[in-house]
Amino acid sequence: MNKYITKLSEISSKPKRMIVGLMSGTSLDGLDIALCVCDANDIKVKQFRSIPYSGVLRERLSGIQSREVTNTRELTLLHTELAIYYAEAVRKALMDWTVPLEEVDLIASHGQTVYHAPAQTKTDLNATMQIVDGDHIAQKTGIITISDFRQKHIAAGGEGAPLAGIFDEAVFRHKTRHRLFINLGGIANITWLPSRESGKEVVSGDTGPANTLINEAMEKYFDQPFDEDGKVAASGKVHSELVRYILLEPYFRKPLPKSTGQEEYRLKYIEELMQGYGIECSGKDLVTTLTSLTAQSISRVVDEIIKDEPFECYVSGGGVHNRTLLKELRERLTKGEFKNFDELGIPPDAKEAAMMAYFANDLIAGKGSVIPGVTEQNIHFGKISLPW
Questions:
Q1: What is the rounded distance in angstroms from the CA atom of residue 295 to the CA atom of residue 289?
Q2: N or C, which terminus of the chain has less Cβ within 10 Å?
Q3: Residues 48, 90: contact at Cβ < 8 Å?
Q4: Does position 28 have pLDDT exceeding 90, yes or no?
Q5: Residue 51 and residue 34: Cα distance in Å, rounded?
Q6: Are 238 and 292 in contact, with CB atoms under 8 Å apart?
């Protein structure tokens, strides 16, 4: 028998597992690395770091991400190159944290999303693609690697996203308190967790763009990868008419659950809309307007599903550092008590990397999860790569 099959059995029998979760979002900010300890009922982040992608790497990834036509050679090369990059980053992080490789049970790698294609009609297929090969990570680190989590979601009948609702319900749902989780990555997603004792259903889904349009506008008009602290957004004016026209688009009228991606929301689309309606907007005002778009698209969905109930609100993802965006969210979500995500034992920047560790742990030692509205049976996510 392959010795790593035996090792998998031993890992699954342990009361706790040490797992390195890896996440890189559609914003192409970089690689998040979270060292987690997982058991059947809990997950704790022991160490965390984020490694920014170089300008060259971001440009290469941007050239293949969310494109209907792309360079297949570059796509193939990055599938392997990023895996080697991830493996080296994990080895260095563990060395800096003085954690021997042998003490890590699993690596959980989300990979880099290059295209997300939820069905547009009843006859369409749901599809999504994340590159970064798990075999290369396992081979370079000597650690069993779990990857490609979204494919099972689709194979079972879902859209492949968002996975956050499943994780949020399992880890953060409270017996007596209503909670709202907002994740501000390239795309924004929310999870509404009514208290367990309420008996109400969990609702989760993507609300629309979060950082993706803001970042594109910052790149074009200010030669910056993102709006640091929301300073540019704070200095401009909201073009309310443009926000209104964008929110008339069909996606914003669809009920949750739903998913979307940068394929639907690129700056070119916004500029074409502006041209069509004869709207002129400075770069500064456009960043301000797109920031408000994110807040308004989230608050509209929240108002529809929560109504008048008070709730705790936890925000994670790169957008948590955009003070202007958070300020508007607080102003619009008046029933929410905004709480510090760290109180939950997971830093807000580490949430999605920790989520990957959770799904890896669940695959190896858990009971699986139901996909709300899709499956009645429990599903396990991820594919297993052995080192040798």
A1: 10
A2: N
A3: no
A4: no
A5: 11
A6: yes
What pLDDT is recorded for position 126? Answer: 92
Which pLDDT score, from 0 to 100, does residue 161 have? 84
Domains 3-160+349-385 and 164-344 are alike in CATH topology? yes
CA proximity to 196, closest of 169, 219, 222: 169
270: enclosing H helix or E strand: helix 267-277
- Return the closest-CA partner of residue 329 out of 307, 345, 314, 350: 314
b or e along 61-99 (b: 16 or more beta carbons within 10 Å of the residue's beta carbon)? beebbbeeeeeeeebeebbebbbebbbebbeebbeeeeb
Identity of the residue numbered 4:
Y
Q: What is the DSSP string of 330-372?
A: HHH-TTEEEE-GGGGTS-GGGHHHHHHHHHHHHHHHS--B--T
Which CATH code is given to the segment(s) 164-344? Answer: 3.30.420.40
For 346-381, b where at least 16 C-beta lie within 10 A, e where not — what string? bbbbbbbbbbbbbbbbbbbbbeebebbeeeeeebbb
Q: Give the pair of three-digit tokens for residue 203.
A: 């609702």
CATH 3.30.420.40 fits 3-160+349-385, yes or no: yes
Whole-number Cα distances in Å, 71 to 53, 66, 68, 128, 317: 20, 12, 10, 17, 29
C-alpha 84/C-alpha 148 separation (Å) is 16
Question: What's this model's pTM, rounded to 2 decimal places?
Answer: 0.93
299 token code pair: 């608050």
Average pLDDT over residues 78-93: 98
Q: What is the mean pLDDT of the chain?
A: 94
Q: pLDDT class for 256, splitting at 50, 70, 90?
A: confident
The radius of gyration computed from the CA coordinates of the chain, to the nearest angstrom, equals 20
